Amino acid sequence: MPIIGVVDSSKTGNLASNYFENIMSFDASGSTVSTTLSNIPQVYKHLRMVITILNNGNSNNLAIRPNSDTTQNNYVLHRTYSSGSSTYGFTYNNVGGWFYNYTNTGVPNVASIVDIYDYSRNDIWKTYISIGGNNGNNVWNESGMWRSTAPITSLDVTLQGTTGTRISLYGVK
Question: 109: domain CATH number?
Answer without folding.
Answer: 2.60.120
